[in-house]
Write a structure and sequence with these properties.
This protein is 30% helix and 20% strand. It is α/β, with parallel strands linked by helices and 355 residues long.
Length: 355
């Protein structure tokens, strides 16, 4: 039975119904009848200097200047719009939930790689008694924000500025292209979580797949996704398989680790109304955003010429609109709790309605 679709409202805070979790073996049904369509803030944070707010330009796109080159994706207005759209896609996928960790009354929240800060702002509204910190390499976040949220320019792969055991909840989403050592980042999160606090990772596996043989008719898209993975590896930013995060959290010391797996269709081919809506926005995300996702990696890491990349992009945009190709990507949400002590733990309750 189809779940109700989430309203197209980026400002909505309350979830409608629990998200539908897709097991790895579950098959998505194709739609054959488609109609077109309040603690004090810590004082030790990085000051914004000219070297941070300056930008670099390459292939007609704008990139961050602070630790230039660390992140291969642009930060211009087009990309900011895409990141907000991407947030909307995941909000739809999770039925309006901003998190799947069973949070009750968090006081300090840290958002790693906050991007435009939309998730952090919505969390600040949802938990008005919490202090929410969003960190990123790019100073692109708005200034008109709730009083209980602030943004800092910092590198999550460098030593963190915060005291250990100081956060009730640490969150990350879409860190692909940002991380050199995933296990080291997870270990930092563990150290900075309070005993009993939660760490939650939400990330996409860009490797394209399907439940039938239709992917064979999508050679450009399949090749593009494979090259993104290859280029990221060469760039020093490996792309994990969606099944790896759970084990890494357990190795770091988190307990009661739960893994929720979803399928994100690349267009509106699914029959399920919720996933059709997700696919509609993911198609827009990719047709408008694949340039931002690929051009830095292809030209820097694979040494493609910009014109070569644009030719691939033109063919790719036509291919991903084909509804007879039932392609999707896996999206993993993994939640772990730092134990209250090294020897004891209690069972972590699942979000209501989630297995």
């Amino acid at each position: 039975m189809d779940n109700p679709c989430v309203k197209d409202d980026l400002t909505r805070r309350k979830p409608m119904t629990p998200p539908t979790v897709c097991q790895p073996s579950s098959i998505l049904e194709v739609d054959s009848c488609h109609v077109p369509d309040d603690e004090d803030w810590d004082d030790d944070f990085a000051s914004i200097t000219s070297s941070i707010v300056d930008y670099e330009f390459e292939n007609g796109r704008r990139y961050h200047a602070y630790k230039a080159g660390n992140y291969p994706y642009p930060n211009d207005e087009l990309e900011q719009d895409r990141l907000d759209l991407q947030h909307h896609v995941i909000t739809l996928l999770l039925n309006g939930e901003l998190h799947l960790a069973p949070l009750e009354n968090p006081k300090r929240i840290l958002d790693l790689g906050t991007g435009t800060g939309l998730w952090a702002i919505e969390m600040a509204d949802s938990f008005p008694n919490a202090a929410v910190i969003g960190t990123d390499l790019s100073p692109v976040q708005p200034t008109m924000v709730p009083d209980n949220v602030r943004f800092e320019i910092s590198d999550m792969e460098s030593d963190w500025m915060y005291q250990e055991n100081s956060f009730d909840y640490i969150h990350s989403r879409y860190l692909l292209g940002s991380i050199t050592d995933w296990q080291a980042m997870i270990q930092r999160a563990y150290k900075h979580c309070k005993p009993g606090a939660y760490f939650e990772m939400q990330d996409l596996d860009p490797r394209l797949t399907s439940d039938d043989d239709s992917l064979s008719r999508s050679p450009m898209h399949a090749m593009f996704c494979k090259l993104i993975v290859d280029a990221s590896e060469k760039y020093g930013k490996p792309v994990p398989w969606y099944t790896q995060y759970k084990g890494w959290l357990e190795e770091a010391g988190f307990v009661d680790v739960r893994e929720y797996l979803f399928k994100i269709p690349v267009n509106t081919w699914p029959k399920n109304k919720q996933l059709k809506e997700v696919g509609k926005y993911q198609l827009l995300n990719y047709t408008e955003g694949y340039e931002a996702i690929g051009i830095g990696l292809f030209t820097r890491s694979l040494k493609w010429q910009p014109t070569e990349f644009q030719v691939l992009l033109a063919r790719l945009r036509q291919e991903i609109k084909d509804r007879t190709i039932h392609a999707y990507q896996h999206f993993a949400v993994v939640v772990g709790r730092k134990p209250f002590s090294s020897r004891s733990s209690t069972s972590t309750p699942a979000p209501m309605g989630v297995p």
